């Protein structure tokens, strides 16, 4: 969800105003995913590297997360959205961890096994962290090291690998997002800043995805058989 800071700067607003607008954009995107038949949405909200931002921005983002999870949980339950926190729990405050756990529990109780949307929020997340923590788990449990075992220990083992990864804000890189899971994902880069990403943009992205041929290493001839 890149581009909040630039969205704010364009309007002479503080960066945090951009992050607040980013939350509004996420609410809209959740609704659009449900309307457009997307069953899993995984968003990158705060990376392992974002701790190096100015202290007031980091604390502003932490406060925003606390506030938003508390404020939105009823809304998520009502809309049959199952929320998962994905990331490193180390370095997060007890207050945030409690809020996340409570939101996870409440949405689980509300939707049981029939969510309309699974929402994974990656916070204090990095793709390298995820691979390393999965590997550490295997070693600690003395399990064999292979792709299937590793995949079963990854932070997103409860969902399939993403079909489509969208990066907003005009940069053409993954920035440590879903490194393992992105192996065969279609990538889409848009100039739109995250606060500007709306239902029409989602529809365009899905349309572009629908026009691609996913070969998973096979030849086009093999696929047409
Ligand atoms: C949001 O966008 C990403 C977060 C870390 C919350 P940015 O804050 O990176 O916005 P730009 O790139 O400065 O516009
Ligand atoms: Mg950015």
CATH class descriptor:
Alpha Beta
Q: The CATH topology is what?
A: Undecaprenyl pyrophosphate synthetase
Record the strand order, biggest sheet: 1-3-2
Helix coverage percent of residues?
40-55%
Domain unit count: 1
Cofactors, ions, other ligands: 3-methylbut-3-enyl trihydrogen diphosphate, magnesium ion
Shape assignment: globular
Summarize this structure as a short list of keywords or feature phrases.
binds 3-methylbut-3-enyl trihydrogen diphosphate; two-stranded parallel sheet; three-stranded parallel sheet; 225 residues; Undecaprenyl pyrophosphate synthetase; alpha/beta
Describe what this molecule looks like in 3D:
The chain is globular. With 225 residues, it is α/β, with parallel strands linked by helices. The strands form two sheets. A three-stranded parallel sheet has the order 1-3-2, sandwiched between helices. Helix 5 crosses helix 6. Helices cover 48% and strands 14% of the residues. The structure holds 3-methylbut-3-enyl trihydrogen diphosphate and magnesium ion. 3-methylbut-3-enyl trihydrogen diphosphate binds next to helix 1 and helix 2.
What's the gist of this structure?
The protein is α/β, with parallel strands linked by helices. It has helices at about 5-10, 15-35, 55-80, 95-110, 125-140, 145-155, 200-210, 220-225; strands at about 40-45, 80-85, 115-125, 165, 185-190.
Strand-helix topology:
Layout: H1 4-10, H2 15-35, E1 40-47, H3 55-78, E2 81-86, H4 94-111, E3 117-125, H5 127-140, H6 147-153, E4 164-167, E5 186-189, H7 199-210, H8 220-224
Parallel strand pairs: 1-3, 2-3, 4-5
Helix pairs in contact: 1-2, 2-3, 3-4, 5-6
Residues 1-6, 19, 22, 46, 50, 61, 169 line the site of 3-methylbut-3-enyl trihydrogen diphosphate.
């Amino acid at each position: 969800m890149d581009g909040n800071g630039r969205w704010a700067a364009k309007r002479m607003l503080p960066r945090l105003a951009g992050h607040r607008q980013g939350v509004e954009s996420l609410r809209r995107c959740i609704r659009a995913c449900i309307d457009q038949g997307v069953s899993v949405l995984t968003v990158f909200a705060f990376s392992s590297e974002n701790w190096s931002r100015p202290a007031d921005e980091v604390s502003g983002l932490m406060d925003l997360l606390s506030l938003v999870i508390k404020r939105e949980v009823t809304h998520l339950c009502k809309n049959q959205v199952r929320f998962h926190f994905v990331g490193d729990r180390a370095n997060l405050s007890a207050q945030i961890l409690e809020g996340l756990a409570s939101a996870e529990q409440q949405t689980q109780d509300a939707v049981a096994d029939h969510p309309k949307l699974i929402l994974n929020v990656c916070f204090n997340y990095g793709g390298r962290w995820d691979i390393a923590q999965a590997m550490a788990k295997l070693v600690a449990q003395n399990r064999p090291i292979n792709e299937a075992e590793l995949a079963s220990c990854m932070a997103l083992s409860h969902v399939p690998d993403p079909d489509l990864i969208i990066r907003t804000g005009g940069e053409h890189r993954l920035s440590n997002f879903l490194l393992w899971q992105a192996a065969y994902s279609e990538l889409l880069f848009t100039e739109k800043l995250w606060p500007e990403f709306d239902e029409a943009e989602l529809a365009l992205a899905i349309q572009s995805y629908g026009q691609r041929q996913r070969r998973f290493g096979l030849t086009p001839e093999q696929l047409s058989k």
